[in-house]
Amino acid sequence: MNKSMKTKRLLFEELSAVLTGFSLADIQGTGLSSLYLEVFEDKDPDAINNLLSAFEKFDTESGKLSDDDLILISGALEDKYLRPISQQLILMWYTGQWNFGEPDTYVISKEAYIESFSFRAAGSHPAGAKQPGYGTWQFPPQTFLEE
């Protein structure tokens, strides 16, 4: 797909995948991309637009970024203007919360809490939602280590 044909949401999803370490399918599978992008645009449209503009230069079509792209992304994330919004984006996906420039942190929605990546990263589930099912305690915990 031509970069100019990408929607803002797709660019946001691709950026989110790069910054969180989760796949584009994981990001899209939450169903939260539009909501999260809307929150950013409502709270700080200039910051998210600057971050998306910086990211738009990278080729994500192959699904893998080159070493040069990763070095440039790392440099962009050290930028004093892009770093805070990048950190907020990562925090949002992992916790379902907003706290960028706000005195109080708040959960964006119940879906944001349920789909937050912190539970997936821990191999767990959110309390009160997505229960593993009756009798699952008899199985050993899931492991992510390769043997």
Helix content bin: 40-55%
Instruction: Give the number of helices.
Output: 8
Radius of gyration: 17 Å
What characterizes the major β-sheet?
2 strands, antiparallel
Task: Give the terminus-to-terminus CA distance.
Answer: 38 Å
SSE succession? HHHHHHEEHH
Number of strands: 2
**Poorly predicted runs of 5 or more residues:** none
Q: Pairing-aware structural class of the strands and helices?
A: mainly alpha
Mean pLDDT: 84
Per DSSP, what share of the residues sits in E-state strands of 2 or more residues?
Answer: under 5%
Q: In order across it, which strands form the biggest sheet?
A: 1-2
Gross geometry: globular
Could you describe the 3D structure shown?
The chain has 147 residues and is mainly α. The protein has eight helices and two strands; from the N terminus they run H-H-H-H-H-H-E-E-H-H. It has a domain at 7-91. Strands 1-2 form a two-stranded antiparallel ribbon. The mean pLDDT is 84.
Name a few traits of the molecule.
147 residues, two-stranded antiparallel sheet, 2 strands, 53% helix
Brief account:
By secondary structure, the chain is mainly alpha-helical.
SSE layout:
Layout: H1 8-20, H2 24-29, H3 33-43, H4 45-55, H5 67-77, H6 82-95, E1 97-98, E2 106-107, H7 110-115, H8 117-122
Antiparallel strand pairs: 1-2
Helix pairs in contact: 3-4
